[in-house]
Specification:
Helices cover 82% and strands 0% of the residues. The chain is rod-shaped. It is mainly α and 65 residues long. GO terms for molecular function: DNA binding. This is Arc family DNA-binding protein. Keywords: DNA-binding. Pfam families: RHH_1.
């Protein structure tokens, strides 16, 4: 896989890596891990929300009245 960054992104990433004493590669991997974890959490919340909304539809309808 190749990752193509805009020039401004490349420069900002390089500066951040230097400031943190880390490699650009390490920062990108961490960002990907965070993104994947966040998306997995969001999917879980959506799934559970739908499950409990369906299971408690009558209660939710009465609360909305």
């Amino acid at each position: 896989m190749n990752l193509r960054l805009r020039d401004d992104q490349q420069e900002a990433l390089k500066e951040r890596a230097e400031a943190e004493g880390r490699s650009m590669h390490a920062i990108v991997l961490q960002a990907i891990d965070r993104y994947l974890e966040q998306e997995a959490d969001s999917a879980t919340v959506r799934r559970l929300g739908a499950k409990y909304a369906a299971g408690h539809a009558d209660l939710l309808r009465r609360l909305g009245e």
